[in-house]
């Protein structure tokens, strides 16, 4: 088991560094005693997300296996076994993991997001739940319900940021993660004519960041890392603004140097 765990840890660390470059910067600020468990959690969630995004034939079965573990069943896959291992050290909220799986099923079916409430529910399932499970690993003090709401809000803010950053890429793949009612209100987000839509959506994301960041003080450990991650991700919104609110097609890119400077500032401030 130790050799298998060592192999999984190496994979988890490498996956984080190669795929989640912004998060990898923040993860360096995590306390050593929880850092590897956070990497393992990321490996589980990223693996499931990639299987679903790529529409792999085994995606549904792997999601089902994690759902079964959430319901008290056997840990039958690598993802479920990692979660069971983590649950031996942390109070992993299985309901949040189950909600994450519901988000994966929504992606498999590509369920349309008709209203902003639908989009909020989707963002909670695929990312707010990640914040909730992360908070369980880092530990919380004070009101558990308040800590959970804040952790969910921060994850949702990051997912909304992803959606705005990737509008053109998603459209190129025949998808949109904007609410249908919002597109109908502001128009199809073509380059050069999406400022009103982006202003509206950025304001919604910023409100979630404010709620999430306010709850970081409730974390028992890892607050510096989470504050840095939130600041770096939120900077994508500021970059969208600096780029002229989608005047040109393509992603808003925050340079690594700027990310490092932001992480250093937030880490020292914390």
Series of H and E elements = HHHHHHHHHHHHH
In the residues, how many domains can be counted? 1
Helical region count?
13
Q: Quickly give the CATH architecture.
A: Orthogonal Bundle
Radius of gyration: 18 Å
Q: What proportion of the residues is helical, as a percent range?
A: over 70%
The main sheet comes to: none
Mean pLDDT, to the nearest integer, reads 94
> For this structure, what is the CATH class?
Mainly Alpha
CATH topology title:
Farnesyl Diphosphate Synthase
Distance between the termini: 37 Å
Overall number of strands: 0
Strand content: under 5%
The low-pLDDT segments are none
Overall shape: it is globular
What structural class results from the helix and strand content?
mainly alpha
- Report the CATH superfamily: Farnesyl Diphosphate Synthase
Explain how this protein is built.
The protein is an all-alpha fold and 270 residues long. It has a single domain, classed as Farnesyl Diphosphate Synthase. The chain has helices spanning 2-19, 21-27, 32-53, 59-70, 78-87, 94-109, 116-138, 144-165, 167-172, 180-186, 195-214, 223-242, 256-269. Helix 3 runs antiparallel to helix 7, helix 8 runs antiparallel to helix 11 (195-214) and helix 8 runs parallel beside helix 12 (223-242). It is globular, with a radius of gyration of 18 Å.
Quick summary of this structure?
It is built from 13 helices and no strands. With 270 residues, it is mostly helical.
């Amino acid at each position: 088991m130790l050799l298998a765990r060592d192999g999984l840890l190496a994979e988890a660390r490498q996956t984080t560094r190669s795929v989640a470059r912004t998060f990898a910067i923040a993860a360096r600020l995590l306390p050593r005693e929880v850092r590897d468990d956070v990497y393992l959690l990321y490996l589980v969630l990223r693996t499931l997300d990639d299987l679903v995004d790529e529409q792999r034939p085994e995606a549904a079965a792997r999601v089902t296996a994690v759902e079964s573990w959430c319901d008290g069943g056997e840990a039958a896959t690598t993802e479920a076994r990692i979660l069971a291992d983590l649950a031996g050290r942390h109070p992993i909220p299985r309901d949040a993991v189950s909600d994450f799986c519901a988000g994966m099923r929504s992606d498999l079916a590509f369920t349309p997001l008709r209203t902003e409430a639908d989009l909020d529910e989707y963002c909670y399932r695929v990312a707010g739940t990640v914040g909730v499970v992360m908070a369980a690993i880092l530990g919380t003090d004070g009101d558990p319900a308040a800590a959970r709401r804040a952790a969910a809000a921060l994850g949702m803010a990051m997912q909304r940021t992803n959606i705005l950053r990737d509008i053109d890429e998603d459209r190129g793949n025949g998808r949109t993660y904007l609410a249908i009612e919002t597109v109908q209100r502001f128009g199809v987000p073509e380059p050069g004519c999406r400022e009103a839509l982006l202003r509206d959506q950025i304001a919604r994301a910023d409100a979630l960041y404010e709620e999430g960041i306010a709850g970081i003080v409730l974390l028992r450990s890892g607050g510096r890392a989470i504050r840095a991650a939130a600041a770096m991700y939120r900077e994508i919104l500021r970059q969208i603004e600096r780029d002229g609110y989608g005047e040109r097609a393509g992603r808003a890119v925050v340079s690594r140097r700027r990310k490092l400077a932001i992480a250093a500032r937030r880490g020292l401030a914390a």
